[in-house]
Specification:
Chain A: InterPro entries: Bact_response_regulator, CheY-like_superfamily, Sig_transdc_resp-reg_receiver. Chain A: Keywords: Phosphoprotein. Chain A: This is Response receiver CheY associated with MCPs of class 40H. The complex is a heterodimer of chains A (125) and B (273). Chain A has 125 residues and is an alpha/beta fold. Chain A has one domain: Rossmann fold, CATH 3.40.50. Chain A has 5 helices and 5 strands, in the order βαβαβαβαβα. Chain A has a 5-stranded parallel sheet with strand order 2-1-3-4-5, sandwiched between helices. Chain B has a domain of 147 residues: GAF domain (Beta-Lactamase, 2-Layer Sandwich), CATH 3.30.450.40. Chain B is 66% helix and 15% strand. In chain B, a hairpin with a 2-residue loop joins strand 5 and strand 6. The termini of chain B are far apart. The chains are: A alpha/beta (125), B alpha+beta (273). Chains A and B meet through helix 1 of A and helix 1 and helix 2 of B.
């Protein structure tokens, strides 16, 4: 039985592995991976999640659309969402946060940063 | 009249007698108190002369020595606490360093694992591209391979720029040609002042199998949030130079052998029909 269920939505397998590696330092974490926004929504409907980490630029459904849909769904709107992206402009950050993302991390990927943000949103000391 | 006088004299005599008696009692009390105090003084003098002074002097010395010992001990403990605090700070700094190294090693491991996870040439190029974007933080770059027959280096995959925009380069010519010849990486001296030039990239890394260069990685622009390279980036470049080259070479060989196998199979099928 896991303490925290985390959903990683990212089209790059390399990135998924890197993010998963960073998160595995959290005791009792279980990670579920999705290739894009649609796959992410499918996985969301199948079980309860404590945190979602999503890329923005993905095929089929991008990360911002996913954030918007999750925030407007009564079943999922309380789940914290972290956006991890190459888009470093301030307006991109503001747009993601305005749609309901809880945090915004830019690439290149820094495992420590991801871990800190995840711990903070999962309320782990 | 005479009788009244006598009574008055008698009364005054009584009063005087009472006062005298009280004075006598008071004098007796004073004498007793005096005696008691003299006795007490004698006792104290006796105590002092019979060793009381010597005893308290030794105690004082002992106490002074004890205080000195405790002071020394206290100083030693303070020194040790200071030393432990310094050690703790060193450990904390070392912990952060190891944490960083651990993260970097994990990144390097995942990058190399992914590079060797497939023998499909296009997939290998895709993985190299992902590593350069996600781990190094490059926005515009090209993966260029050397055609050993024509001695020309050509882009086989690009990100942020069109492949057609990257001109082919002769071996030994310009920055890219020099890197391919020497096998030494090139880094622009000032990243901030760098202006995109397809013949002189900001960073040019040779893709090598041992000393044999099979191509280069040319970076023209970094992500806006990536201001400079971290030490791990140089390690990643070194890793890329080796593992990416091997992965590209293996996948190409595999593709060639698959194609040849398919051709041979076609001939065999023709001959056996």
């Amino acid at each position: 039985m896991s303490d925290y269920n985390v959903l990683i939505v990212e089209d790059s397998p390399t990135m998924r592995q890197l993010i998963a590696f960073a998160l595995k330092r959290i005791r009792g974490v279980r990670i579920v991976e999705a290739n894009d926004g649609v796959d992410g929504l499918k996985k969301l409907s199948s079980e309860r999640f404590d945190l979602i980490l999503t890329d923005i630029n993905m095929p089929i459904m991008d990360g911002l659309k996913l954030v918007s849909l999750v925030r407007n769904d009564a079943n999922y709107k309380a789940i914290p969402i972290v956006v991890i992206t190459t888009e470093g402009a301030q307006e991109d950050r503001e747009r993601a946060l305005a749609l309901g993302a809880n945090d915004y991390i830019t690439k290149p990927i820094q495992p420590t940063k991801i871990l800190d943000v995840a711990k903070s949103l999962l309320k782990i000391a | 009249m005479q009788k009244d006088d006598e009574r008055m004299v008698h009364s005054r005599g009584e009063e005087f007698l009472q006062v005298f008696k009280k004075g006598a009692e008071f004098t007796q009390d004073l004498l007793k108190e005096n005696e008691r105090l003299r006795f007490r003084v004698l006792e104290l003098e006796k105590f002092q002369t019979s060793g009381g002074e010597a005893g308290s002097g030794a105690d004082l010395r002992k106490l002074t020595e004890r205080i000195a010992d405790l002071e020394a001990e206290k100083q030693e403990i303070l020194d040790r606490i200071k030393h432990v605090e310094e050690e703790n700070q060193d450990f904390a700094a070392r912990y952060l360093e190891i944490e960083d190294e651990n993260n970097n090693l994990a990144n390097l491991y995942i990058a190399s694992y992914q590079l060797h996870s497939t023998l499909d040439f296009k997939e290998v190029l895709q993985i190299i591209t992902e590593i350069i974007i996600n781990l190094i933080g490059a926005e515009e770059f090209a993966i260029m391979l050397l055609d050993e027959k024509s001695d020309e280096i050509q882009a086989v995959a690009t990100e942020g720029v069109e492949r057609s925009e990257i001109p082919p380069v002769r071996l030994g010519k310009g920055v890219i040609g020099e890197v391919a010849t020497s096998g030494e990486s090139h880094f622009a001296t000032d990243f901030d002042a760098y202006e995109r030039d397809f013949t002189a990239p900001m960073v040019c890394i040779p893709l090598k199998i041992k000393e044999h260069v099979i191509g280069v990685l040319a970076i023209y622009k970094l992500l806006m949030q990536k201001k400079e390279f971290a030490p791990v980036d140089y390690e990643l470049f070194t890793l890329l130079a080796g593992h990416a080259a091997t992965a590209i070479f293996s996948s190409r060989l595999y593709s060639d052998s698959e194609r040849k196998l398919s051709t041979i199979q076609g001939f065999i099928d023709l001959l056996t029909k």
